[in-house]
Design goal:
This protein is an alpha+beta fold and about 350 residues long. The protein contains ten helices and eleven strands.
């Protein structure tokens, strides 16, 4: 038994030597000088950087000023977006005057979200960051939400229409939208509502008219870059669903107030039979609130994890969708798992242990 233990200890020591051998000369010198306390240097610098550059109230003030400017810009955006939505609705494959609304969608608000708004944007030394700003364009219309669920809603009276029904797909976290059938409709099944591919085209047309620079559809968003210094701005179409969606499926309930609601964004799971019309549940706005509650050490740990991801990418390591929680097979509970870990991480742990716990 003692030989096995000695062999394991030798293996760990050799593994440590090989790891140090792959580090830059400056880091090797740091390890040589500080020994087992070398991690405290990284912890101190990363936390100090967050304290100096990622002040919560200041970040919120900046986001608020951006959203005030967006509110003014929305005065111009609204008529254009309504006209584009009306054109898209007129071109729909199936129309029914009984179950579908007569008025087009309308823009309600524009909200900032994503890593840059959260203060969790990443950076590459000498190159700047790769994170983008998300502007979530929240739409609404003359309809009500039917109770969510896989069971088809019963026919309703025309005076109760239109109602929008979100039907879960085989992929957890993704739904398709349909107009609830009325007792006067001539069709047998609920008609598709606001197919994801059509609203993505709406956003692409909007950006082509209103924005300059490099315009690229990406996932649920349309990305607009004016230069190569950052990730640009993502314009995302979304619909707000009040209350939890569809019902709490987290291991211990929802990780925050369920009355906040969630958004649906137009993107399908790759390979899904209904990918072109699917919407994905988005927790971006709730994440923005959750991040505000994190301690500086934990925010620094999240940013360090993103920096590791960028280093792996630059090194040619194929990580695929490893860091995309909404493509996991665990019924969208990856975010819950991360928040659970975050709630257990204490400032005394340090940044490097925080990264290890998140991984």
């Amino acid at each position: 038994m003692s030989k096995i233990i000695d062999a394991a200890r030798f293996y760990r020591l050799e593994q440590g030597r090989r790891l140090v051998g792959t580090l830059s000369p400056a880091v090797q010198q740091l390890v040589a000088r500080c020994g087992s306390a070398a991690h405290l240097v990284a912890d101190t610098l990363l936390v100090a950087q967050d304290l100096a550059n990622n002040h919560g109230p200041a970040k919120q003030a900046y986001i608020t000023s951006c959203e005030v400017g967006d509110a003014v810009a929305d005065l111009v955006r609204r008529p254009l977006l309504s006209a584009l939505a009306e054109v898209g609705a007129a071109a729909a494959a199936a129309r029914c005057r009984h179950c579908q609304p007569r008025q087009p969608l309308r823009l309600v608000t524009s909200n900032r979200s994503g890593s840059s708004a959260e203060g969790l944007d990443d950076g590459i030394i000498g190159k700047g960051g790769t994170s983008d700003f998300d502007i979530m364009l929240e739409f609404d219309g003359p309809f009500r939400w039917a109770p969510p669920g896989a069971e088809k809603p019963a026919d309703i009276e025309p005076r109760s229409a239109p109602q929008l029904w979100a039907r879960p797909t085989d992929n957890a976290g993704f739904v398709t939208l349909h107009w609830v059938r009325t007792d006067r409709c001539g069709h047998e099944e609920p008609l598709e509502a606001l197919p994801a591919d059509s609203v993505r085209r709406l956003m692409l047309d909007f950006c082509r008219v209103m924005k300059g620079g490099e315009i690229t559809p990406t996932g649920p968003a349309v990305n607009v870059k004016s230069d190569d210094k950052d990730g640009g701005t993502d314009y995302v179409f979304c619909l707000l669903v009040r209350g939890w969606w569809p019902a709490p499926v987290w291991p211990d309930g929802a990780p925050w107030d369920t009355s906040f609601g969630v958004h649906l964004v137009p993107t399908g799971r790759p390979g899904s039979k209904t990918a072109s019309i699917e919407y994905r549940i988005s927790l971006s706005r709730a994440e923005l609130l959750a991040v505000r509650q994190l301690c500086p050490g934990l925010r620094a740990a999240v940013k360090a994890l993103k920096a590791i991801k960028n280093i792996l990418k630059e090194s040619g390591v194929a990580i695929g969708d490893l860091f995309k929680s909404y493509f996991t097979e665990r019924k969208n509970d990856t975010l819950y798992g991360v928040l659970t870990v975050m709630s257990k991480i204490t400032p005394e742990w340090g940044v490097l242990r925080g990264v290890a716990e998140l991984l």
